[in-house]
Amino acid sequence: MKADFSSIQSLCLLRLSAIGDVCHAVAMVQAIQRQYPDLAITWVIGKVEYQLVKHMPGIQFVIFDKSQGWRSYGQLRKALAGQRFDVLLHMQVALRATIASLMISAKVRVGFDKARAKEGQWLVTNHRVEPLATPHVLEGFMGFAKAIGVTDLTPSWNIPVPETDTEFAKQVITDDEKVLVICPAASKAERNWLPERYAAVADHAVEKGYRVILCGGPSQLEVDLAANIIKSSHCHIDNMIGKTSLTQLLALLKRASLVIAPDTGPAHMAVTQGTPVIGLYAHSNPGRTGPYLSLQYVASAYEEAMASSYNNKIKWGTRAKGEHLMVLICVEAVIEKFELVIAKLNA
User: Fold this and answer.
1) What fold is seen in the domain 10-147?
2) What is the pTM of this model?
């Protein structure tokens, strides 16, 4: 018998990481808010990810700081002491999330369907979303909203940005500029494109009248990658690697004309701002993790990479293995996507 969620008054959402997945979760939770505007929502979220969404209205955030090790679970239990939710949406398949969910008291505990409920998730839930054969991550998340009776699953995003960050972005990118933002680095070096190829696309963009800005975090990997891109380029590139907060980066991505990025958080941040994204994919299936509103612009070598590793039918979402798969994406393929985007922008 299908549960009736029309009278729910409190909901807890468990999605700790990462930035891209949190962007997908925002669309899901805001779909819930449209249907249940008076619903009290608590979101258990990672420390870094919180910095992106902390200004969202109608949500009480509880930070789960995984850097605290086992103490993080006790801190979560203390933060939620005395609270019992009508519904828990357990949206993260990870052992730490399974353990964290034990600190959350809820009558109905919604998890993924049997095929996706790994890392012990099925042990701590009592209700499942509908199975989907080949979902994008965002569509998989929307299954949680559907499970509690939400009917309008059209993704949209409203991630508030402080006015000071908006003004910062206006100073960096003026209204009359055409700007390509390259966010070159993923969390794992093997998912990054080659610096000389980023540089070649940057050179092409400048020839077409675009200013090029590099954006990203302060890690040494990103700093070094940016330096190598600039060294390989024949044009001027503005380097803002490590010089923005997450909300400042979000504001910059909104003002950009288009974005180029591998499978990394800023690609999905740009989607939330309505900015077209050229995704660079070889390790993961862009049909599952690509920039949701820009899948037609993805430069993908995923199928080629998988064909060299697997002869039989593969499960949806299987990652391709190898340290040098991104070399399969050629400069010409990315420039072709660039031309498609700017043709649409000009139209």
Assistant:
1) Rossmann fold (3.40.50)
2) 0.97
